[in-house]
UniProtKB/TrEMBL annotation:
<feature type="region of interest" description="Disordered">
    <location>
        <begin position="1"/>
        <end position="26"/>
    </location>
</feature>
<protein>
    <submittedName>
        <fullName>Uncharacterized protein</fullName>
    </submittedName>
</protein>
Length: 87
């Protein structure tokens, strides 16, 4: 769906399973933005976690991506866990 929006250049699926997906998104609207998106489902609960950064040098972008991807891979959705939004 996001790929059909103007300005999105790339949506790459990094990990896909029956209960979640992790994607890398690159957008070029005004100042370039990159990010990692986690979309998970457990029973009737859906969770979207998004970490993004604006244009930075290549080494910093690689560090941001590595950290965001590691964080997304640590997300576990199962009975008994609470999801608490943070600002």
């Amino acid at each position: 769906m996001a790929a059909k929006q103007s300005g999105f250049e790339d949506i790459q699926t990094i990990e896909e399973s029956s209960d979640h997906s992790i994607r890398k998104v690159s957008a070029r609207q005004g100042q370039p933005v990159e990010g990692i998106q986690y979309l998970g489902k457990f029973e009737n609960t859906f969770v979207v976690v998004w970490q993004a950064w604006r244009s930075v040098d290549l080494a910093t972008a690689r560090d941001y991506q590595t950290n965001a991807l590691a964080g997304a891979k640590r997300i576990v959705m199962k009975k008994g866990l609470d999801v608490i939004p943070s600002n």
